[in-house]
Amino acid sequence: MGGKLACGVTIFRVPYHHDERLADDSLVLPGASVTVEPEFPDGTIWERLASLTGAVAAVVAEDAKAGAVPTVVSGDCLVALGTIAGLQRAGLDPGLLWFDAHGDVHTLETTTSGYLGGLSLRLALGAHPDLLAGPLGLRPLPIERAVLVDGRDLDPAEVAYLATSGLVRQPVDALALPDGPLVLHVDVDVIDSAELPGLRFPAPGGPSTGDVLEAVQRVLATGRVAAVDIAGTWHDAPNSRATETLAALLAS
After folding, report:
1. Which of 217, 216, 249, 218 is nearest to 232 (CA)?
2. C-alpha gyration radius of the chain
3. What is the pLDDT of residues 36-67, one digit of tens each?
4. Listed GO cellular component terms (predicted)?
5. For the purposes of burial, counting CB atoms within 10 Å of the CB of 152, is it exposed (0-12), middle (13-18) or buried (19 or more)?
6. For the chain, what is the total number of helices (H) and then of strands (E)?
7. Domains and CATH numbers, the chain
């Protein structure tokens, strides 16, 4: 399989936002990568997303079983469920660090926008298991094994959930990690929107690019990161600043 780097990392490029194919120049990666292209069924959006995340889970599992640290780069956060499921298929029981300006803890009942990416973390924690977790064979993560990092742009329903759920929230400069192997998920919109133009859902008041990169490096230095999942949630167009940020994250 191509895309293997000297450090034992394979970069999997998943050029999709939900089930929509992105233009090739909207997700530009430095160096070699393996592009994941699923076979989509004629079905519901959730059936199509199950095919996409299932394809991701398959390549992540294969790579992890070979002793590598897979890195998945996609256009939205739902793909992270495939990354988590892939590690589980490889026999790991990962915790989760979720770097994101948004909570992503909506359910179908609480979302006001209908944006499915806003359910991503909540799905990983066990909501609506019939939609993705069931088809993927994903075991929902115990809430004490997940950390929401710098989630600041929250809807009222998300605020209410976070107030009572026990999900830990932390800033990028004061991280306490779950035990065991980790999935490190980074939505680039965790960075202050003043530094990163073109985001689908910009959020001001966040950490700098440098702060996020330092936090990522500290997490990686533990040696416990079993997979990295990066969501490039900018609009489907070339964006030099976003591409530079993605390259810096991958260089970490």
Report:
1. 249
2. 16
3. 999 999 999 999 999 999 999 999 999 999 99
4. cytosol
5. middle
6. 7, 10
7. 11-251 (3.40.800.10)
